[in-house]
Amino acid sequence: LKPWRGLIETYRPYLPVTDTTPVITLLEGNTPLIPVPYISQQIGRGVKVLVKYDGLNPTGSFKDRGMTMAISKAVENGAKAVICASTGNTSAAAAAYARRGKMRAFVIIPDGYVALGKLAQALLYGAEVIAIDGNFDDAFKIVRGMAENYPVTLVNSVNPYRLEGQKTAAFEVVDVLGNAPDWLCIPVGNAGNISAYWMGFCQYHGLGKCDRLPKMMGFQAAGAAPFLTGQPVPHPETLATAIRIGNPANWNKAWETQKASHGAFNGVTDEEILAAYRMLASQEGIFCEPASAASVAGLLKVKDQVPSEATVVCVLTGNGLKDPDCAIKHSDNQLKSGIKADLATVAQVMGFA
Ligand code: F0G
């Protein structure tokens, strides 16, 4: 068994790095592609669903794929500080990789709308965290301005190296399946990840590593769905705070991806997201964060459109541990507390006596 060396070393020929690029890595990537039989059964007709569980990356989300590239290139280019706006995961990944690369990390977040685990990570990794009275879109405007006017490198997904790193998730899917899936279902916020996957599939297709390209199916939270309304949403709202974004940074790339792949954008309500979130955990043993469950919620919503016998990959972008408050609040499984510490009582509570 060869030890995993991180995605830059593994996919070096397909990435914009040279022998002199310092590789800042936490050995991200190589995340499992897990079959989900219960969800497959919900669709039936021989459809096979697998989830790409990117919540198992070092900081718990797919952002590590982008950040190993963005931070390695920032160090190569002599940067001393990076900055990002974030709904939480980007800030955690930026903080971890920037500190490992001995740089300062500034993160601007919407006050009160970042899940607890993500905030804890950014702080402990040593980022300088600034919470603004505004949403992600407001924060993003500020960091763009900061990067234009001050010596800080922007590491949001408009940084081209971010998508270069993130495209490796598509490589991994093809490497495991032996081909591209028929459908790729993915949550959409800024639309960086959907664009990155598409880049990856197209690049592998060009290299003859797969002989088909997937239909790219992007899912947004219904209250934050600019790709459904066709224009920015001024006041995005969803409990899936990771994708609470009204003015996506990768607007054009996302539409190009949709057109080229003959894919589609759809919306899912918070209730549908929570139902998929609970189903993944309680039926499949997979704990993802609410935004990630949008991919499965979306697939279930449009399940009649899936061709029989198709292979479908749903991307689970972040780990459920990121947002413990949501899990406790929205689990329909209740804690049995205040139980006397003796065997007979516990047996009774368990229904055995
Ligand atoms: N899923 C999770 C868990 C995310 O954190 C994000 C984005 C997305 C999906 C959407 O990906 O923006 O490439 O379409 N999170 C960003 C952040 C905005 O700041 O962490 P996208």
What is the gist of this entry?
It comes from Rippkaea orientalis (strain PCC 8801 / RF-1) (Cyanothece sp. (strain PCC 8801)). Its cofactor is pyridoxal 5'-phosphate. The chain has 353 residues and is α/β, with parallel strands linked by helices.
How would you describe this structure to a colleague?
The chain is of the alpha/beta class. Helices cover about 40% and strands about 15% of the residues. The strands form 2 sheets. The protein has a 6-stranded mixed sheet with strand order 1-2-10-7-8-9, with helices on both faces. The chain has a 4-stranded parallel sheet with strand order 5-4-3-6. Helix 4 packs parallel to helix 5 and helix 8 (about 170-175) crosses helix 9 (about 190-205). The chain is globular and about 70 Å long. The protein binds ligand F0G. Ligand F0G binds near residues 88, 90, 157 and 292. Ligand F0G binds near residues 89 and 317. Catalyzes the gamma-elimination of phosphate from L-phosphohomoserine and the beta-addition of water to produce L-threonine. Pfam families: PALP.
Defining traits:
353 residues; binds ligand F0G; six-stranded mixed β-sheet; four-stranded parallel β-sheet; alpha/beta; globular
Write the layout of secondary structure elements.
Blueprint: H1 7-10, E1 33-35, H2 37-43, E2 48-53, H3 63-76, E3 81-85, H4 89-100, E4 104-110, H5 116-125, E5 128-132, H6 136-149, E6 153-154, H7 160-166, H8 168-177, E7 183-187, H9 192-206, E8 215-221, H10 226-229, H11 251-261, E9 264-268, H12 270-284, H13 290-301, E10 311-316, H14 324-330, H15 343-350
Parallel strand pairs: 2-10, 3-4, 3-6, 4-5, 7-8, 7-10, 8-9
Antiparallel strand pairs: 1-2
The structure holds ligand F0G.
